[in-house]
Amino acid sequence: MPKKQVLIILLSIIFAHFAHAQTNITIKGKIEFPDNRFKIEVTEQDNFNTIVHNSIDANKDGSYELSVKVERPGAYTLNCQNQERVRFWAEDEDLIINFRGRDTARVHYIGPTYVHIYGGPNNELINLFNWENYLHYWTGASASNVPYKTPEITDKALVQDISGKILKILNEDHDKRIAYLVQQYGDRNSIILLLNSIRNKTELHDEVIARLERKNPDYPPLVKYKAQRIEEKELKARLEKGQPAPDFSYPTPNGKENLGPHSFKGKFLIIDFWASWCGPCRMEIPNLKKDYETYRSKGVEILSVSIDKDESAWRKAMKEEDMPWSQVLAPDTGKDILKTYQFSAIPHIVLLDKEGKIIGENFRGKILTDKLEELTNTSVNH
Fold first, then answer.
1. CA 82 → CA 105, 108, 346, distances in Å?
2. 178 in helix, strand or coil?
């Protein structure tokens, strides 16, 4: 049976089930330091679309209570007045979620917080998952920064190398911890949220899928996950090395032309997906400038693709960064291009050969420089 027919059948099962499987859950709690300029909002991410299920004002004392009609069981997000947010499993558990709210500390740290969910078995697992991700973020941020603050290490390349190795060790440890959670809690519905984190552990991943299928083969989140996996595999196959890069055509800042991979045939092309609000993206720009200055005369071009929602913020960042290469703005905060090129974090860099075929992705810093040196030397020799 063709893959498209399989997808249609799977999605039909989901929608048929949704038609008669709706429940209402209640979420309540208190915000210690409320900022009542903003609302409390429950959202669901459907691929690259954000669905708002409910949005309310907190009471003056910081307490709140809201009801959510769960048409699709799965991972939802509770956003507390744009100060904190937490992912939870929405199905049949009423929840109590308290927030600190507005940051009153003298020193502000930008990054995730941990918010505990009082609920049932499904959200007990989500707590463990959220906690592991919280620890991993802050441990990585602290540990990887140590080489940069060590005055005895003066070689910048060595600093980057040590920092990268620290992050690699921490990432491997984090993967093992998530795998342990999956092994121990693989019979809970909310385990589906963790499956993306263990896709490289094929045996464990498939074992959990089989366990869930034995429990309830028509469970909508499971059916949806399997359908998405089929679609992702098809999209990933189009992004393998040697495949023609998916084309797009987006407007330049002056609006006089549209550019995409097709515009740079005959050149090695660095496609840099970024945004004005992305700190790591902007930290990478000096490296790109050095590479552009060194390799432009050797046939290398750069196309920066912004996924900014705010066009004025994009223009302001371009002016501040003064990037001397081509710039375009993807519409709808890049929803289509995120899906087409299968990435969810930026900066995301894709490198194309002179025929517009994919060489690889996630090249940054010295790794990108070394690859460009290899490509341009090989090109000259031939």
1. 17, 15, 21
2. helix
Q: Which run of H or E residues covers position 258?
A: strand 258-259
CATH superfamily to which 250-381 belongs: Glutaredoxin (3.40.30.10)
Q: What is the DSSP string of 195-226?
A: GGGGTT-HHHHHHHHHHHHHH-TT-HHHHHHH
Q: Alpha-carbon distance 366 to 290, whole Å? A: 11
End-to-end CA distance of the chain: 46
Low-confidence ranges of the chain (pLDDT < 50): 14-20
Query: What strands, in cross-sheet order, belong to the sheet with 268-274?
Result: 326-329, 300-306, 268-274, 348-352, 358-361
Q: Return the closest-CA partner of residue 161 out of 139, 144, 143, 138.
A: 144
The two tokens of residue 29 are 């709690």
Q: What does the domain layout of the chain look like in residue ranges?
A: 3-235, 250-381
Cβ neighbourhood burial of 172 (10 Å; 0-12, 13-18, 19+) = exposed
Q: Is 69 exposed, middle or buried (0-12, 13-18, 19+ CB in 10 A)?
A: exposed
Residue that is written with structure tokens 């001397």 in the block:
324
pLDDT per position as a tens digit, 258-281: 999 999 999 999 999 999 999 889
Which token pair is 338? Answer: 């995120």
> What 3-state DSSP class applies to 260?
coil
User: Rounded CA gap, 99 and 111, in Å?
Assistant: 15
Residue 18 burial by CB count (10 A; 0-12/13-18/19+): exposed, middle or buried?
Answer: middle
pTM above 0.70, yes or no: yes
Output the pLDDT for position 20: 42
